[in-house]
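Q: Hi! First time asking for a complex rather than a single chain. Here are the components, and I think there are two in total. Is that enough to go on?
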Amino acid sequence: MPDPQSPPGASYSERLQKLIPTEVIAAYLAIHNVINSVDLDDGRKIFLHALSALILLILQPFYQYKILQRTYPPLIIVSCISFVIWAVSVGGIMEGFEFYLPIYSTIAIILWTFVIPMLVGVE
Amino acid sequence: MKKFILVLLLCSWPCLIWGQDILSVEKSFKKLPAAGLFFNQPTGSIAFLPKVGDERYLDWVATYYLLPESGFYTLHRKSNYFFRVNHKAKTQEVSYLGVLAYIIYGGNYSHRNPLHLTRNDSKWLPGEANRSLDKKNYAYVIPKVQVADFFQAHQTESIKKCDEILTFTWHAAVETGSPYSWDYRSKWHNAKPPHLDNFLTLLNVSPTDYGAAITAHLIQFSTTNNPSKMLDFYFNADNAVGVYLHVFSPLGPEFDKEFYFRIK
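A: Yes, that's all I need. Here is the structure of the assembled complex.
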């Protein structure tokens, strides 16, 4: 799929920068640190982490469209998926589930970061 | 004969060392930052849940302080101390978990009742004919009896006498009829802190001037391959300086643990 904002000639790292929403991840990291700095029950922390991640996920397409002026839908969808993987990897959302191990998100983030520039923006 | 005595001495040496060392070496928790890591531990593993202060949040626990083995540990001061037992196993078996927390207070602390007994909300059977269980008994029941009465009740030979001393019908059998907690009364009788004097010294509490209270739980559970229903228990140790915790299950020795907790 050709990406009008990421021409075929763009380097791997340039494409990666566009596909990983660093500003939104930075916002989530800041919230994550605030939540973790308070002595709360795990249950409340998980709820706050999940809620803030959800709000950022909903806001992200608007941020991409309005502020970064990205209109190419696959790019927005991929960056939303990137955010979810990063947010889970940072921690605080999935740790309460019995089936989840932190190593899963570490593997997922490595594979996703490796794969996405090949999926989007390459003719 | 000499050889026999020598072998006997050599064999008893670890036991002597254990008795002395259990309180002289403080053990450390193994911190596990995800529920999945706890359920990867062997069946019967126990973890303290430091980030739970309320029963409402027991479904969402991410921080586990695994207690790798019986021994002496230090807990930070709080009101309710929550614990989780790993009951994940390949086969499904119904049994119960026996929990006794012997809570120690400095001075003659008397702001709480000496005995708190609970049975969890499961299908319990009376265990014997002509005996009935009050359905309300699964709730927090606080009989007006003393700590010594609890141990004395488990020295008696009849369940009727035990019921009389405890003032209600606490012992029960699980839904399959067996195990029956009264059949394991020696476990309860022996659940006294074996190194109480040394423990009191360690806590800087005078053996002649301390208060004690017991929280005892009968928790029916089933081992499972998919632990959606957790096996948890807690005790309240407001103002306490130490707790001796004894946990066991007729299911197997892997559940049998004893801990000395210093609270500070």
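A: The longest strand of chain B covers residues 94-106. Let me know if you'd like any chain examined more closely.
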